[in-house]
Amino acid sequence: MKAMVAVKRVIDYNVKIRVRSDGSGVETAGVKMSMNPFDEIALEEAVRLKEAGTVSEVIAVSMGASACQETLRTALAVGADRAILVETDADLQPLAVSRMLSVLAKREEVSLLFLGKQAIDDDANQTGQMAAGFLGWPQGTFLSSLKVDGTHLVVEREVDGGLESLRLAIPAVLTADLRLNEPRYASLPNIMKAKKKPLETVTPADLGVDPAPRLKVLSLAEPPARAGGIRVPDVATLVAKLHSEAKVI
Known about the structure:
- GO terms for molecular function: electron transfer activity.
- One of its GO terms (biological process) is carboxylic acid catabolic process.
- Keywords: Electron transport, Transport.
- The strands form 2 sheets. Strands 9-8-7-10-6-1-4-5-11 form a 9-stranded mixed sheet, sandwiched between helices. Strands 2-3 form a two-stranded antiparallel sheet.
- The relative contact order is 0.18.
- It has one domain: Rossmann fold, CATH 3.40.50.
- By secondary structure, it is α/β, with parallel strands linked by helices.
- The chain is about 30% helix and about 25% strand.
- It has 7 helices and 11 strands.
- It is globular and about 65 Å long.
- The longest helix is centred in the first third of the chain and has 15 residues, at about 35-50.
């Protein structure tokens, strides 16, 4: 069976986010970009299944500007066999992304669709669930463990009360949480080999999907600066301040 992995190009998690001066969005000019960390975990899991002989092919998919090719080449260097870029300058939102993923999953006849549980730029946590809805496939979200048992998957997912075990029929949509695995680094030889692996470019129109955003962001603003702390001489003063200033007791 084949696996497809969605990988998103986001601002690197080490970069301090800055809002544009006009409040129209987040500043991305001259900012280091990288693969969404949760997507790295999803990709690693798909590659491990391939190495175990469970999956025959891993296809990496990204959506956005042509610069997303860099993210896809990274995925190919990690172990994906080929890549697909849905190239568009539209402001993509989870609904459009999930529609395009579902179309590609059907076109490529994949059995497993992997995603990170969320992207660190918008923290939407919606795409995997909506893609499962469009496909009509079972879904395992927030995965911390995955095993293939014949024509089914046995997964553990993280919930508020601990861990939940599920048995899913294949095909299925899976979203990765932090504890699923430890992603590998791409070696230099594999980075060189990735340059020769196939990377197909399509457009949303080719997939029959309108990527126009359904939600409009009016403005963005940075949170107000946090006031500095103070040191009090004793517990009595602390209690008095909590009562008179913080109004918590």
